[in-house]
Design brief:
about 230 residues; alpha/beta; Rossmann fold; globular; methyltransferase; SAM-dependent_MTases_sf; S-adenosylmethionine-dependent methyltransferase activity; SAM_O-MeTrfase; O-methyltransferase activity
Length: about 230
């Protein structure tokens, strides 16, 4: 910290100018739903195994979106340790099934434990280990209510095309981590991951068959729904 910064500490109101909401309110909104022991444990596993779990605000939004569309069939690309999958399952219909895909079989073992600890019946989820684009291309057209993607950012545009094929009219596609720690809004960042995220944002915004919004919760949640014909 420079001596000037020490003499003139940052004005907390600067956060209001930057975000439209003060940091205390932001933190309150992010943690509004809270987390039980199962979710806390899954987040701890994610940290231990170097997996980036979605934030609590994004998890709450996933539960809400799944409940809003009455989701019975959901696809998740990027299982992690089960934080996002559990959020989806808790918003889905009681007879709904989550299909979750991850390249790492160990991640799926941990997610299975998370779902089991949360009391989710085994017939409510299927875990498929493999490359996402190899797996989702074999899933049924127009069968799914929601597709959630939190995997290789450079493949997001390809995931989008598959999601549009998989979703029924009125279904929702969601992408996590879209702001990439504030890199996406900053034109100075031109690395491949950030560029791929900008390409995805542009593709969603310019698709006339989609109604979309970029939610600033957690690290950014891009959501879009297929228009009803």
């Amino acid at each position: 910290m420079s001596s000037a910064a020490a003499e003139h500490p940052a004005d907390p109101r600067e956060g209001i100018i930057a975000t439209g909401i003060d940091p205390t309110s932001w933190a309150y909104a992010e943690d509004y739903i809270g987390a039980d022991e199962v979710v806390t444990g899954a987040r701890a596993l994610a940290a231990d195994f170097g997996v980036t779990a979605i934030g609590p605000g994004a998890a709450a939004a996933l539960s809400l979106l799944a409940a809003t569309v009455g989701a019975k069939a959901v696809v998740e690309v990027g299982t992690g340790t089960g934080v996002s999958g559990l959020a989806l399952l808790r918003g889905m219909r009681a007879d709904g099934t989550l299909t979750t895909v991850d390249l790492d079989a160990e991640n799926q073992r941990l997610a299975r434990q998370t779902f089991s600890d949360a009391g989710i019946a085994p017939n409510r989820f299927r875990l498929i280990a493999g490359a996402a684009l190899d797996v989702v291309t074999r899933l049924t057209d127009g069968h799914y209510d929601l597709v959630f993607c939190d995997a290789d950012r450079r493949e997001n545009t390809a995931y989008l095309q598959e999601a549009l094929r998989l979703l029924r009219p009125g279904g929702i596609v969601v992408f996590a981590g879209i702001l990439a720690g504030a890199r996406v809004p900053d034109p100075a960042h031109r690395d491949p991951d950030t560029t791929a995220l900008r390409d995805l944002l542009r593709a969603v915004r310019e698709d006339d068959d989609l109604v979309s919004a970029l939610l600033p919760t957690s690290d950014g949640l891009l959501t879009a729904t297929k228009r009803l014909s």
